Amino acid sequence: MIQLTQDEIDYTRLTESVRSPSAGAVVLFLGTVREMTDGRETVALDYDAYHEMALAKLAEVEADASDKWPLVATAIVHRLGHLEVGEISVAVAVSSAHRNEAFEAGRHMIERLKQCVPIWKKENWGDGSTEWVHPGLDGNKIRT
Amino acid sequence: MIQLTQDEIDYTRLTESVRSPSAGAVVLFLGTVREMTDGRETVALDYDAYHEMALAKLAEVEADASDKWPLVATAIVHRLGHLEVGEISVAVAVSSAHRNEAFEAGRHMIERLKQCVPIWKKENWGDGSTEWVHPGLDGNKIRT
Amino acid sequence: MKLAVRLFAKAKELAGTELVHLDVPNCTNVGELRGVLSASYPALAAIAPNLLVAVGSQYADDTMVVDPSVEVACFPPVSGG
Amino acid sequence: MKLAVRLFAKAKELAGTELVHLDVPNCTNVGELRGVLSASYPALAAIAPNLLVAVGSQYADDTMVVDPSVEVACFPPVSGG
């Protein structure tokens, strides 16, 4: 399951979608908007995406994980738009017969998502300024 | 948060309990009753625990993870009693500023739980027989 | 001295009870306790070497001395999760 | 030929538009496209070397030839998650 949404992420629904009698393990990862980054206060983040390509790349992220590990099911949802501190920006869920694969695949999926899916965040700093986050671009620090 | 319960595990509540503005990452692990093990069908599992010691050891599992990684919050709940295939036997939730720590600590906590917390499962096999699972004990295969 | 020992899982099943009362000499250690347990409950003899022993909710090795004032429990390897 | 290029994030902000229309020679490749984009939109010149280019929703290197029938997009490094 792949989804881009403007609405709050229902991670319970996402998790239920990967549960199965053939799975003994489920791993869910949530990315949430953190208040402090290197001592600076974040008030909110705005997420934008190249929708068509992001959906294609998210499907590749799922397919890649399913190629590497024997998984039962995977699901990814990424939120777009304006997110306040503490809100969930991304949820990745994976199930497998045994726990090692679920942990490894879950981690791999969020890493790949951050590397290759065309989604961008804009910082809304506490001092009122805004700043697109583009790792490696002049004047932009890498944010992990 | 540490809990042993006879009731269905509310993993949403558990996950909410570790979310925080200072966390950018949440990892949730669910252990669920798998139908097939080495070609044999499981109908149900019965879990029993040495309550007082299990609670003490679960607290140690949390403390150990918080010593090893800079975590924001941790929570573990283990279900006891009779569980049908597909039901959740254990849930581990952890939050941290960055995702690596959440993944590593989540995995470490479930590993330690399985090694040292005095809880036992009894298989209810599809052929009607039952069998305590005691890894390393004569006649018992290690089940992971 | 009288010592109550809690049993769990297959140990409880084999012994047919969740609490056994043993007569042991003063200063009995965990290793000696295994012997007394096996002698008193022959059904446990086969698994006695593999039982884990907890004293006061902490795992105890065979050299630890038991005491009726601190709870003692014996159980087979754990399988939670 | 006429080529429409979609822009995102800081590239869109700097150009002041989410879709630019460029005049490029036939058989223009992605590397040459960066040059045309910089010349037409000077505000993008500083980041043009670091822009990622997607052709038909796949990342394209500088040698790939663009074609008006397949969607082209330019954007700075991604930061989702």
Q: Spans of chain C with pLDDT under 50 lasting ≥5 residues?
A: none
**Roughly how much helix do the residues of chain A carry, as a percent range?**
25-40%
Number of strands of chain C: 5
Largest sheet of chain A: 5 strands, antiparallel
Number of helices of chain C: 2
Radius of gyration of chain C: 11 Å
What is the succession of H and E elements of chain A?
EHEEEHEEEHEE
Largest sheet of chain C, in brief, is: 5 strands, mixed
Oligomeric composition of the shown chains: heterotetramer
Given helix and strand content, the structural type of chain A is: alpha+beta
Main structural class of chain C = alpha+beta
Proportion of beta-strand residues of chain A: 35-45%
Helix content of chain C: 10-25%
Characterization of the model:
The complex is a heterotetramer, with 2 copies of chain A (144 residues) and 2 copies of chain C (81 residues). Chain A is α+β, with helices and mostly antiparallel strands and 144 residues long. In chain A, 31% of the residues lie in helices and 40% in strands. Chain A has helices at residues 11-18, 51-68, 99-116, and strands at 2-5, 25-32, 36-37, 40-49, 71-79, 81-84, 88-96, 119-125, 130-133. The longest helix of chain A has 18 residues, at 51-68. Chain A is elongated. The model of chain A has no long low-confidence stretch (mean pLDDT 95). Chain C has 2 helices and 5 strands. A 5-stranded mixed sheet of chain C has the order 2-1-5-3-4. The N and C termini of chain C lie far apart (37 Å). Chains in contact: A-B, A-D, B-C. Chain B binds chain C through residues 31, 47-50, 52-54, 56-57, 78, 89-90, 110, 113-122, 132-138, 143, and chain C through 6, 8-10, 13, 46-47, 50, 52, 54, 57-59, 71, 73, 75-81.
Give the key terms:
heterotetramer, A: 144 residues, alpha+beta, 5-stranded antiparallel β-sheet, 4-stranded mixed β-sheet, 3 helices, 9 strands, elongated, C: 81 residues, 5-stranded mixed β-sheet, 2 helices, 5 strands
